[in-house]
Amino acid sequence: MRNVLVTGGSRGLGLGIARRLTGAGYRVIAVARKESPQLTAALEEAERAQAGSLRFVGCDLGELDDLPGLVKRVRQEVGPLWGLVNNAAVGFEGVLALMPTAQIEQLVRVNTLSPMVLTKYVVRGMLAAGGGRIVNVASIIGVTGYRGLSVYGATKASLLGFTRSLAREVGGLGVTVNAVAPGFLDTEMTQGLGGAQREQIVRRSALGRLADIADVASAVEFLLGDQAKSITGTVLTVDAGNTA
Question: Which residues are catalytically annotated?
Fold first, then answer.
């Protein structure tokens, strides 16, 4: 059973990815600050289906000094990591001129620095093993921009550059590095948008709807699998045609 570490795996997209991957036969280690009720239910469900297929490890990913210990602990508990899904992110909204500097720093630390540092320690084991998969969860906002999300957009754009360059660094030793770029998803977050704002996004989409968590989770599963062995340094956009 291949081991995959998924950050931000306690809720939302991260939990959807974790569920999808356990169903596909991976052993998933979900990392988040704390275990959510949704994750508890998923852990119980996975345990009934296949014991040990889903695990939770608590860690504040914003504490960069804790990341080497996290990777060491996971390796000791489950063995080598085949995959890493850098999904965890914070998403403060606000125009730049009014955003507190502390929030800017937190966005950059959690969304950019943390996945880079975590990848640094995970990829060492992949290189030693002669293979692995890294999938970074970016966003179409990193390419298109969006009012009130300038810092968030900057952090997601940085992941795209990171993906392409790291793919060249580690490809010779069998490690692929790709990104998925979700658009606005049909989740609780978009339900919170104003009705007119949400309808405008839907109208702009080529398919006339929003993508959902399952769509993105399927893309992640594909990039982790053997069918994607010749795909690296690329960005798979899952946005129902919003950027078409």
Answer: 152
Q: CA-to-CA distance for 32 and 9, rounded, in angstroms?
A: 6
Whole-Å CA distances, 34 to 7, 8, 11, 13, 129? 12, 10, 10, 16, 30
Question: Is residue 81 within 8 Å of 122, Cβ to Cβ?
Answer: yes
What six digits make up the tokens of 89?
């992110």
pLDDT at site 43: 95
The conformation of residue 211, written as its DSSP 8-state character, comes to B
Could you give the CA distance from residue 152 to residue 141 in angstroms, rounded to a whole number?
8
How much is the pLDDT for 92? 79
CA–chain centroid gap for 147, Å, is: 23
- Burial (CB < 10 A; 0-12, 13-18, 19+), residue 65, is exposed
CA dihedral 106→169→133→236, nearest 10 degrees, is 70
End-to-end CA distance of the chain: 37
Q: For the whole prediction, is pTM greater than 0.85?
A: yes
| Residue closest to 34 by CA, chosen among 59, 15, 12 | 59
Compute the half-sphere exposure of residue 200: CA atoms within 13 Å on the CB side of its CA: 5
Helix (H, G, I), strand (E, B) or coil at 27: strand
* Dist CA 2 CA 140 (whole Å): 29
pLDDT tens track for 60-103: 999 999 999 999 999 999 999 999 999 999 887 889 999 999 99
User: Which pLDDT does position 197 carry in this prediction?
Assistant: 78
